Amino acid sequence: MTHRADQNDCAVLDSWHAVGFLETLGTAPTHTRLLGVDLTIQRNVDAQITIRAQGHDTPLPVAERYGCLWTSLGTPPATPLAIPEADEPDRRLVCCGSIDVHASGLRVVENFLDMAHFPFVHTNILGAEPQTEVLRYHTESRRDVDEIWATDCRFHQPQAALSAVGGQDTGYIYRVASPFVTLLYKTCPNDTLRPDVIALFVQPTEPERCRAHPVMFLIDDFSTQADLIQFQQKIFLQDRIILENQRPRLLPLDARAEIPTRADSLSVTYRRWLKQKQVRYGATGALPAA
């Protein structure tokens, strides 16, 4: 059964969604799904890209940003989110491959925002026992840009990045730019002033399925591209095991569905924000009254 996005789910329909990496596109048609709709992607000999939804003749909006191809089933902003660091000439763009996940895309975003699982899921990489405490941090909804941010996040990590030598106390800033797009800015082992930037662009294909497109903007002159991709994929595949075993697969938005702790402040803010935006796709639970 096809589960298309509700026509009233404007926060999802009117967002830009990454639907693949530009480097993988050839001239042969490519087929994918977005919000329960079949899409056909065509790049012609002049490198122009057209995306059409099944049963519709009018092409969808197209944008090429951050190594990804973006589109929307609604009326999106003029361009996808701004990532100023991506324009810095000494940063490396690392597209880490697309990964299918049998879980709601909202679950995948929430997992990306969670520090508490580091020692138990990413043992001896992003965390390790006995240093399991998530220290108090600040979470806010920035109404001027309609984004969620978490600042003053810190966590001790045995190997915060591929280029890291030894453990370090890593600073994090989290940013949720739209329901299925999130980024983190973390302490860079190679530059004391500028953070590495890791983005996760999630393509919701069905309510309980998605495709994740991790992208990194790194200051790293030492590591090979293949090693950087492998390092990030290892971390994400560890997450996928947990994500595909979570129940329900949809993200509950009812505050009574799951009991949060202090470490879940960002998750609570994210769910409240989704509820305020009346997001339905990939979610379950009470919606605010109209």
Helix content: 10-25%
> In whole angstroms, how far apart are the ends?
29 Å
Biggest pleated-sheet summary: 8 strands, antiparallel
Give the low-pLDDT segments: none
Secondary-structure-based class equals alpha+beta
Mean pLDDT: 89
**Strand segment count:** 16
Fraction in beta strands: 25-35%
Element order: H for helix, E for strand: HEEEEEEEEHHEEEEEEHEHE
Proper CATH architecture of the largest domain: Alpha-Beta Complex
Number of helices: 5
- Described by the principal axes of the CA atoms, the overall outline is globular
The CATH superfamily of the largest domain turns out to be Naphthalene 1,2-dioxygenase Alpha Subunit, Chain A, domain 1
Cα-atom radius of gyration: 19 Å
Please report the first level of CATH classification, the CATH class of the largest domain.
Alpha Beta
What is the number of independent domains?
2
Protein name: Aromatic ring-hydroxylating dioxygenase subunit alpha
Keywords: Dioxygenase, Oxidoreductase
Pfam family, one: VanA_C
GO molecular function: dioxygenase activity
